[in-house]
Amino acid sequence: MTVTDYKTAIVTGASSGIGDAVCRMLAGKCMTVHALARRTDRLEALAAETGAIPHAVDVTDAEALANVVGGIEADVLVNNAGTTFNGKLDTMPPERIDQILDLNVRAMMQLTRLVLPGMRARNRGHVFLTGSCAGLWPMAGSAPYAASKAAVSQFLNILRLDTLGTKIRWTEIVPGRVETEIFGLAMGDAEAARKAFLEGKEALQPTDIAESIGFALSLPDRATLARMEIYPTRQAVGGFAYAD
Predict the structure, then answer these.
(1) Of residues 44 and 197, more confidently modeled
(2) Is residue 62 part of a domain?
């Protein structure tokens, strides 16, 4: 299968950033795109501009999620919705830990569980999971977020084993810093987040991730891009930390 053979996609976190860009990319390839997010106004604007089908839903609500996707025969699933919070674990609000794990891990697993039986029955499909370089490399002050993204990576590894022999493809997207609203939403202050995380730093754009997903979809079904690490050219990971 290639992107031209797939007809229907589900994209989460579709109201902004990477999710919005992915919806636009897939719609541009004549796919029927089901766009999932909580912000109704953003979804309606996306639908008006692209023809995507909007679904205003909290993906951490397992029952509501099942009601939305139950009748969709998805060829492509882009599990993109996520959140973050930066800080020391012992000073982090406990509800922040729950939010990170609920959205980044539990909702992602539940949605994949809902879509997978249909992909098995049709013997076709491509699942994308948005990980992070924080899931592969230690980053100070990101324990719950990094742990959630490490879980995404291992979850994908195991699902690839569990579906071995089918035409279901699995790709983990591992981006470095991307210029999206995630930092501002996490901090509750978009301008402060811009100064802290983006000002003076080169960052990827959401369209860079969307184009990478498009490339993975374009490969023949004998080939799977299992993991794509995508960094700004001026970003690198690694190194050592020393106490003074």
Answers:
(1) 44
(2) yes
Give the range of the structural domain holding residue 219, as residue numbers without chain letter. Answer: 8-230
Taking only the tens place, the pLDDT of each residue in 79-100 is 999 998 888 999 999 999 999 9
**Whole-number Å distance between alpha carbons of 156 and 171:** 8
**Number of C-beta neighbours around residue 5 at 10 A:** 11
3-class DSSP state of 201: coil
Helices in 163-199 by DSSP H: which ranges?
182-187, 190-193
- Tokens 């599990």 found at: 79
In a domain, 3, yes or no: no
* Count of domains for the chain: 1
Question: Is 145 marked active-site?
Answer: yes
52 located within any domain: yes
| Partners of 186 in beta bridges | none
- Catalytic residue of the set 6, 145, 231, 242: 145
Q: Which residue in this structure is represented by tokens 């636009």?
A: 24
The contacts of residue 213 (CB under 8 Å, 6+ apart) are: 22, 25, 78, 128, 171, 173
Rounded (10°) CA dihedral 207, 209, 212, 213? -100
Q: pTM score, two decimals?
A: 0.93
DSSP 169: E
* Residue 150 belongs to domain with CATH number: 3.40.50.720
Structure tokens at 197: 């995380």
Q: Answer for the pair 121, 74: CB distance below 8 angstroms, yes or no.
A: no
198 belongs to a structural domain: yes
What is the structure's pLDDT at 193? 63
